[in-house]
Amino acid sequence: PVSVYADEHIASKAVAARIASLIKRKQAAGEQAVLGLATGATPIEVYAELIRLHKEEGLSFQNVITFNLDEYYPMQPDAVQSYVRFMDENLFNHIDIKRENIHVPDGTLKKEAIADYCLAYEQQITEVGGLDLQVLGIGRTGHIGFNEPGSAPNSGTRLVTLDDLTRRDASRDFGGKENVPTKAITMGIGTIFKAREIILMAWSKKKAPIIKKAVEGEISGNVPATYLQLSDNVEFILDTEAASELT
Ligand code: F6R
């Protein structure tokens, strides 16, 4: 289903409220909540609202386990563009999550260690019972995580090559496209699909054409997000501008 909100602020609060209610439901049952998280501009306000809920309304993250979708490769965790740093600054440093419960793909590995690491990442998700909720943004190539066009629907966590458009879109963060890594480690489409709930968020006119393709287009590896049409557990949460080309 598709839910359209007046603006991204209201939409972000609604997503944060859903995450908070999942966390509290799990807490009440004495269980852990396993969240799949995204970086980028899209979820920033969701994380800001979760921080507010923690600081002002006592929402605790003691029972929360997180797995981030992706990280550039290579990438040092303390680099400005690192997703480890992004998550610390935009969420983890401001809540009471246990450090050992946080997982972000490691951009510092030696090439020959990556395949085993990716299998272990999948296994860690499985061992905690799978993802309860996966939060996604969408790239203008139609990528979810860094699953670029050509990604297989059953793909797992792996090293991928970034699309040229993705690197162009990231060029501002890196001070030029030539500085954007050509690779990334990402959860696969198959990994994302196993989540019990999936929320894909998109804001602004810039995302309207790809949202039209993702929601209404033919299901195809050329637009990886179209695979989400095959899931019964996905919700597209949009602002009016991102939804503006939907029929
Ligand atoms: C980030 C990720 C990407 C982004 C997408 C949109 O962890 O997996 O798929 O969600 O590139 O990025 P923004 O939100 O910056 O437009």
Number of domains: 1
Q: How do the SSEs run, as a string of H and E? A: EHEHEEHEHEEHHEHEHE
Structural class: alpha/beta
Order the strands across the largest sheet as they lie in space: 1-10-9-6-2-3-5
Q: What is the name of the CATH class? A: Alpha Beta
Q: Return Rg in Å.
A: 17 Å
Q: From the 3D coordinates, which CATH architecture would you assign?
A: 3-Layer(aba) Sandwich
Q: Round the mean pLDDT to the nearest integer and report it.
A: 98
The CATH topology name reads: Rossmann fold
Question: What is the terminal-to-terminal distance?
Answer: 14 Å
Stretches with pLDDT under 50, minimum 5 residues: none
What is the helix content?
25-40%
Shape: globular
Number of distinct beta strands: 10
| Ligands and ions found | fructose -6-phosphate
Q: Counting H and I runs of at least 4 residues, what is the number of helices?
A: 8
Can you summarize the main beta sheet?
Answer: 7 strands, parallel
Protein name: Glucosamine-6-phosphate deaminase
GO molecular function: glucosamine-6-phosphate deaminase activity
Keywords: Hydrolase
Domain Glucosamine/galactosamine-6-phosphate isomerase: 10-229
